[in-house]
Amino acid sequence: MNRTFSATPYAKRVEQLSSRIFGEVARPNLKDLCVLDEHEDFKEEIKRLRELRGKGKPKKGEGKRSKK
To answer: Entry's Pfam families (predicted)?
Structure first.
């Protein structure tokens, strides 16, 4: 089902949802990918800042329970 008459954002979302339900591959929107990339960048930056402050995950065998 190739439908190219979707003009509104709502119609695009409904078409993507129906294609997901019926097994057709939906092409990602470039705007959506930019938002995801920005969020990944944000998460990486927060993780980097936490490690700089010494808040990273402990190494295996050095957790809370191993110190008892």
So the answer is: MRP-S33 (PF08293)
